[in-house]
Amino acid sequence: MPKTTKPRSLLKKILIIIGISGFILLIIPTIFVAILFFQSSNYDPYQQREDGIYFLQPPKGIPIPLKGADELTFEYLDCYYAKDKNQVYYFGKLLQGADAESFEVKKCNVAKDKNYVYKETAVVQGADPQTFEPLNDHYGKDKQSIYAGFQATQGIDLKTFEVISGRYGKDAQNVYYEGEMVPEARPETFEPIESGYWRD
Description:
1 helix; 21 strands; alpha+beta; 32% strand; 200 residues; four-stranded antiparallel sheet
């Protein structure tokens, strides 16, 4: 009777599947830990060496020199922001016009000084730096306006506005998505669901 190769072939396939599964189980936690490491407020992407300050450009950590940075007063703030007594830096580059003395990070990629509010390096037009506070990654407010996508909105009630979830918010009268009113949505019962759906 001729020999069959089916059992051996099946075993080989099973071993391959087990190997792939093991690799996936190994690599996913590694990637997850790496992401948390780079996003952690404890991670400092700036490095002080004998010849000056360097920015370690992700993902490979390529050292980029910060020309003119003052080594004695240089400090890392958070989320790629840093400053010395004279300048503010974001992602290893000068943040032009920023006031170093009053500069502070409010939320990851959102900062302000005595003159301006910043979204990464862009000035949030019209925002009052004395009263501006980020509400989440998509909304912020100051004494005069609600900001969606870090642009001033019109018609949203400042006193009653609150973030529902993500890009959704509401005031006493309406529900909003990215600052735009959601037609027929009732703020008292509105509830976002996965994949962009909602119910009220």
